[in-house]
């Protein structure tokens, strides 16, 4: 066979030559696969290093706070946002932080730093009642609770603040809104214009209470007003219990109005002006602050940061940051 190939090609050892070529091609393919795997591993490793670096950058460990936690300190708990069971500041999270702060023997005072427009009356009462329970449980240590208002402390936010021993704010803070509301829409006339017929089937005369597609029922409205009045009175009673004689005898206090920090001081809604660092340093006497606030999951915080960074990049790329409202 080899002689026949030699006659046709005029070359000796053509089979050896082809065999060598096949071997070289095979080894070249193997080398290529090895290089691919090697670079793939390096690339994945670099991506991992990058992600770890970003996580550390956006969620650094508070070494200072950790270092002073075993020393006398002021405990800080943030209540920032709408107070509700989910997708907001939940009572469960705040209560868990309160229990840790009260239990820590190095906590010499607790600050509730509040920046909230309010929220669920149930969630706020949970926090209000838990502060009173923990205060009684640890009464031998005489741990005082201070509320520090940032931008706004309205409705349920003030409900929680009123349980504090003292309340501090800024002169420009917005405070109050001691009231209860329930809002709704009515689409009855719109449905008439569109020619839409409402078909509501219920078991129970008032099961379709305040249905936005049905005419207003005066009896149902009257019932809901009594319900809101009952909750409002609970709110008023707890605020009076917390603030005591410091509240001025002003009929507008519980009408749902809001006031500035300066007006609130005159009305007895707050006790003075100051930030959380001021209260820790000058009132509690422990300027070292340890944050007991509920912390979100590390990956969740990372996702939020990445989302915010991406959005900001898009704004800059599209030039939206140069748009102004006049």
Counting DSSP H or I runs of 4 or more residues, the number of helices is 11
Quaternary structure type: single chain
Largest sheet: 8 strands, mixed
Radius of gyration: 34 Å
Poorly predicted regions: 60-67, 297-302, 317-326
Percent of residues in β-strands:
5-15%
The fourth-level CATH homologous superfamily of the largest domain is 2-enoyl-CoA Hydratase, Chain A, domain 1
Helix-residue proportion: 40-55%
**Total strands:** 8
- From the 3D coordinates, which CATH architecture of the largest domain would you assign? Alpha-Beta Complex
Q: What is the count of distinct domains?
A: 2
The average pLDDT score comes to 81
The rough form would be described as: flat
First-residue to last-residue Cα separation: 93 Å
The arrangement of helices and strands along the chain is HHHEHEHEHEEHHEHEHEH
CATH fold-level name of the largest domain: 2-enoyl-CoA Hydratase, Chain A, domain 1
Helix/strand/pairing category: alpha/beta
Helix/strand layout:
Blueprint: H1 2-9, H2 14-58, H3 63-68, E1 73-80, H4 91-103, E2 107-116, H5 121-137, E3 145-154, H6 156-161, E4 166-169, E5 174-176, H7 188-194, H8 218-243, E6 258-260, H9 261-267, E7 272-273, H10 276-284, E8 289-291, H11 298-318
Parallel strand pairs: 1-2, 1-8, 2-3, 3-4, 3-5, 4-7
Antiparallel strand pairs: 5-6
Helix pairs in contact: 4-5
């Amino acid at each position: 066979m080899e002689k026949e190939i030699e006659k046709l090609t005029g070359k000796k050892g053509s089979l050896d030559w082809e065999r060598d070529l096949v071997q070289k091609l095979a080894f070249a393919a193997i080398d290529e696969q090895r290089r691919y795997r090697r670079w793939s591993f390096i690339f994945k490793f670099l991506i991992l290093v990058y992600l770890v670096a970003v996580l550390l950058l956006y969620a650094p460990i508070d070494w200072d706070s950790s270092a002073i936690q075993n020393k006398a300190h002021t405990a800080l708990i943030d209540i920032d946002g709408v107070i509700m069971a989910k997708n907001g500041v939940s009572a469960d999270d705040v209560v868990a932080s309160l229990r840790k702060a009260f239990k820590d023997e190095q906590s010499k005072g607790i600050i509730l730093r509040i920046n909230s427009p309010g929220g669920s009356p149930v969630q706020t009462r949970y926090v209000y009642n838990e502060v009173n329970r923990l205060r009684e449980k640890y009464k031998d240590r005489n741990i005082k609770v201070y509320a520090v208002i940032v931008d706004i402390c309205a409705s349920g936010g003030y409900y929680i603040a009123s349980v504090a021993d003292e309340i501090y704010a800024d002169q420009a803070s917005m405070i109050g809104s001691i009231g209860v509301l329930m809002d709704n829409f009515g689409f009855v006339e719109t449905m008439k214009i569109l020619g839409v017929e409402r078909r509501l089937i219920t078991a129970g005369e008032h099961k379709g209470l305040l249905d936005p597609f049905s005419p207003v029922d005066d009896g149902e409205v009257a019932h809901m007003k009594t319900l809101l009045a009952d909750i409002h009175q609970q709110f008023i009673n707890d605020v009076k219990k917390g603030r005591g004689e410091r509240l001025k005898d002003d009929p507008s206090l519980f009408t749902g109005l809001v006031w500035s920090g300066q007006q609130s001081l005159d009305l007895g809604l707050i006790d003075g002006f100051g930030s959380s660092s001021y209260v820790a340093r000058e009132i509690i006497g422990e300027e070292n602050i340890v944050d007991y606030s509920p912390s979100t999951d590390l990956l969740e915080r990372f996702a939020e940061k990445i989302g915010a960074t991406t959005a900001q990049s898009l704004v800059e790329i599209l030039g939206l940051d140069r748009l102004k409202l006049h």
